[in-house]
Amino acid sequence: MTQTERNKSQLDEEEQREKRAKPEIASLGPGEREGSETMKSSIIHRHPLSILLVVLALVVLAVFGYFVWLVHFHPYESTDDAFVDARSFSVAAKVSGYIADVPVSDNKHLDMGSVIAKIDPRDYQIALDQAIGQIGVARAAVSSANAQIAAAGAAIDEARAQQASSAAALQYAKDENERQQELVKSGAGSEQAAQQAASTLRQGQASYAQSQAGVTSAVKNQASAEAQKASAIASLQQAEAQAEAARQNLDYTTITAAQPGRVVKLSGSRGQYIQAGQAIAMFVPEEVWVTANFKETQLADMRPGQPVDLTIDAYPDHVLKGKVDSVQPGSGTAFSLLPAENATGNYVKVTQRVPVKIVVDDWPKDIAIGPGMSVVPTVTVRPRS
User: In the predicted model, is pLDDT for residue 378 greater than 90?
Assistant: First the structure.
């Protein structure tokens, strides 16, 4: 059998199958088929309202079916406007100096307390030694003031004892002067004895006044010594504060990691002079999450705690599990540097996006994940029926 005959045989078989599939149409002649089409057209013309109602019913049924599917069979919300986020910060020096050592490299993971860089500590060690010396001087001054206070107290006791002695001598001189004056008046005593008694009285008065002045001087000396002690104590506290500041500056020469994470964009190098506050690296903590900017129309059923499936664009084979942590109370533009001002005459409504924080249950350890990497989260906002 030739190829042409085989093709003709296949065409004949296809025509026979079509005739068997449509026996009624195939059995009709040309005039009958035209009559059938005319009959269908007349039915549409005779019952247009019924046909319209049927079409509307089909449309309503389709819309209803779509919403049923959306509510019961598609309980998800997803977005491609999402990325890995973290509270990255710059690592800066607190003191100035030359960098003596940088024991880390770029992108290295560090534990809390690990050394990132060291600044030459010699100048700060000298400052600490000087501050410690000032503490010794201040303590010596406090001890000297204590000794002066003790000596002033002893001087006060001595002056008061002398005052008591002079008071007794003065009282005796007064009594003796009175007796001699009475004897002179009665003619039983001599004028010389009366004069001597008066002179002794004046001497006693002078001695008593001198002892009073001595007591006053000793008390003032004690007050002066106490003031010197207070000044010495203040100097001691100042010296201790300076020593503490010097000790802290010495500690600041060693720059360490405040928490576990990775060092990126390391710019400090050995021998470089850096100023206080100058950044030498960026630090990315271990704690990272996903910030997903959902449309505000997707938030109706979104709540904290709902499960999330996440796919990172860089690693599409890794499907991560997480949950919604929180929804920002406001759109992203409301907290931007230049918030949108809608009180204008040419306002156009735009669907806003709201940041949603998503935490991941367990980040994979065998791949590098960091801030800025694109993520596609899918949130299960309603339980599947």
Answer: yes
Please choose, from the candidates 289, 312, 315, the residue with its C-alpha nearest in 3D space to the C-alpha of residue 376: 312
How far is the C-alpha of 322 from the C-alpha of 360, rounded, in Å? 4
Does the pLDDT value for residue 34 go beyond 70?
A: no
pLDDT at 256: 93
What's the confidence (pLDDT) of residue 63? 85
CATH of domain 89-120+254-282: 2.40.50.100
Structural domain boundaries of the chain? 77-86+287-380, 89-120+254-282, 122-252
In this structure, what are the phi and psi dihedrals at residue 115, rounded to the nearest 5 degrees? -80, 130
Class of domain 77-86+287-380: mainly beta
How far is 201 from 172, CA to CA, in rounded Å?
Answer: 8
The CA-CA-CA angle for residues 369, 375, 376, to 5°, reads: 150
Report the CATH architecture of 122-252: Orthogonal Bundle (1.10)
CA nearest to 257, candidates 48, 114, 382, 44: 114
pTM of the predicted protein model = 0.61
Distances (CA, A) of 189 to 170, 177, 179, 181: 22, 12, 9, 8
Give the tokens for residue 18: 């079509």
How large is the greatest C-alpha to C-alpha distance in the chain, in angstroms? 193
| Residue burial 87-101, b: 16+ Cβ < 10 Å; e: rest | ebeebebebebebee
DSSP for 195-240, written as a single string = HHHHHHHHHHHHHHHHHHHHHHHHHHHHHHHHHHHHHHHHHHHHHH
Distance CA 96, CA 275 (A): 4
Nearest to 142, CA basis, from 220, 53, 3, 237:
237
Q: Which residue has the higher pLDDT, 245 or 8?
A: 245
Q: Yes or no: say if 289 and 364 are a contact pair by the CB < 8 Å rule.
A: no
Scored b (16 or more CB within 10 A) or e, 288-304 reads bbbbbbbeeebbeebee
Burial of 5 (0-12, 13-18, 19+ CB in 10 A): exposed
Torsion angles phi and psi, residue 384, rounded to 5: -75, 135
